[in-house]
Fold this protein.
Amino acid sequence: MARVTRPDDDARRVAVRQAVSVSVATGLYGVSFGALSVAAGLSVPQTVALSLLMFSGGSQFAFVGVLGAGGAAGAAIATAGLLGVRNGLYGPQVSPLLHARGWRRPVAAHLTIDESTAVATAQPDPAAGRVGFWWTGVGVFVMWNAFTLAGALVGNALGDPRRYGLDAAAAAAFLALVWPRVTGPGARVAQLVSAGAVLVALAVTPFVPAGVPVLLAAIVAIVAGMLVRPPDAATADADPDAAGSDGAAPRTDPPGGTA
Amino acid sequence: MSTAVTWVALVVAGAVCFALKLAGHLVPEHWLAKPRVARTAALVTVALLSALVAVQAATTGRALVADARLPALAVAAVALALKAPFVVVVVLAAVTAAVLRALGMP
């Protein structure tokens, strides 16, 4: 944690600065979501509605990816929902900082994503954490939705997605989303799960409807989660502040988004 | 898929994602703070995203396909290893596939 001479002002200023840089970085990748969503077959209004209502990059990319591959609505909903589970796990980390009541509570919930949680929990004191959460949440929401619209309009103007390599861009987007979770120290289990998920998804693709291979791959993770106990689990149990260190740490979706 | 079905699906999926976020703010902290729950959820995220990479890059319908998407994905991986920003990674992959297809690769 950063040393702070005047806790209140300095810490809050740092939190706001982080929030702004994360918002800009995340907003810019809203362009790629907008373009890829339209390339997957959604209309511009549907693409915009998805960013407003779902507001979680991974779930949104997955939703349009499954639909674009010809998957059923149920498979798209299930995949988006499963990817949204981690946002639910962020709630207990940020709600003690926020003390949100009344109408602020659902708003805070909607803004609880990788980026706002990462910035909020990185601050040295609760007041700065609160500032970091709200600035990042609102900032990312505004930028993400504005750039989703821009990307959707660009994607709409381009036409045939294959000609511009947008199908390859969708694969690259998922790779970029998973990259920070499978690199770095302590990611060996994640790497094995990743490889297992790829094998399962490709192996069952010829035999099941589109969208289902992705869901079946999740079973690999559930089995691994039940069986594997990493060496750092004991410390994570003991220290509530270390809850993020056991592999569930909030990651900003764009690599390097949170400086 | 019809426009109406897509609308219903996106509203339902949005509601599911919101409900999950809200649940995190409402349910007792100790339940979700269990390391095994958090770890499994993190691994599910990894598995879903990894499977999506594979399906997007190497399948068309129910067929396994090797086309311009694979070299584009390799370029994306190199860009990520070099810590390129998200947008750069995505654009490089698109440009690679577009160029290879313009040169005649499927």
About this structure: Chain A has two domains: 8-164, 183-247. Chain A touches chain B through 111 residues (CB under 8 Å). The radius of gyration of chain A is 19 Å. Chain A has a mean pLDDT of 86.
